[in-house]
Write a structure and sequence with these properties.
This protein has five helices and no strands. By secondary structure, the chain is an all-alpha fold. The chain has one domain. Helix 2 crosses helix 5.
Length: about 80
């Protein structure tokens, strides 16, 4: 049984995240810069092109969905922080 658990653990460790999770992590990582660009009037297309140059390609709809989700997540986080202050 221990060998079976060990094999499963190794298999799970070797799995790679799906592209959506990778892209969501990149949106979160660069959120401040992306949001700043949006606020300065930079188009989503130009932002996506910059991300694509770094290997993070996504459709316009995917970018918008992931960016909007990150905005919503951060807005909720800000509300929780203010309540706790």
């Amino acid at each position: 049984m221990d060998t079976k658990n060990s094999k499963l653990s190794e298999k799970l460790k070797s799995l790679q995240p799906n592209i959506r999770n990778i892209n969501q992590a990149k949106i979160a990582e660069y959120y401040e810069a992306i949001n700043d660009a949006v606020e300065r009037g930079v188009s989503y297309k130009a932002i996506r092109e910059a991300l694509a140059e770094e290997g993070f390609k996504m459709s316009p709809a995917t970018f918008k969905r992931l960016f909007d989700a990150e905005c919503e997540l951060r807005a909720k986080s800000d509300v929780v922080q203010r309540r706790g202050a």
